[in-house]
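Q: For a teaching session next week I want to show students how multiple molecules come together into a single three-dimensional assembly. I've collected the sequence lines for a complex. Could you give me the predicted structure tokens for the whole thing so I can convert them for display?
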Amino acid sequence: GENVEQHPSTLSVQEGDSAVIKCTYSDSASNYFPWYKQELGKRPQLIIDIRSNVGEKKDQRIAVTLNKTAKHFSLHITETQPEDSAVYFCAASRGNNDMRFGAGTRLTVKP
Amino acid sequence: NAGVTQTPKFRILKIGQSMTLQCAQDMNHNYMYWYRQDPGMGLKLIYYSVGAGITDQGEVPNGYNVSRSTTEDFPLRLELAAPSQTSVYFCASSYKGGSGNTIYFGEGSWLTVV
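A: Of course. Below is the structure for the complete assembly, covering every listed component.
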């Protein structure tokens, strides 16, 4: 089955700096890669996703890149703000019933 | 439109007790899921359902049971609770199960087994 590894497990940045979180996956058939943000004590919420036929996708300060050959994808947050502080999860799947999540990255943005 | 609703939010169980986590969605979604999230870990799929009357195992089904008698409801049953089942449980749903169909999560149920 699919195995997703996520790095780093914790990340601390200064407000205004960029943050990058990286994930690798094992199943070359995976074709959908969402990123979820989970604030403390809250539910995970989808923030951005990318399909395997696209190499990059951007939504305001958030971007995701995908390298299918190397089987890795990354989340980039620019101009970080304190409200970006949360745990971020990557995931990979061929379908929703086989989605596998990374272990999460706790991002802290220091004002 | 409440989305995905779970109850209870918090529960403490004694070893060997049983309980049911309730989950309901009002988005007319076909697919429903139960995940568990252990501290510092990602989400692991316990069971899922592709429609009323159909359920299937996920990654970590042992110690749990589910049923799907209606499109809206997807309860998770814990039989003979064990400390290893201490976790946060998330119910979720999506309109379809194919790749790219957004999964919407409930607010979570914090379960402690002592």
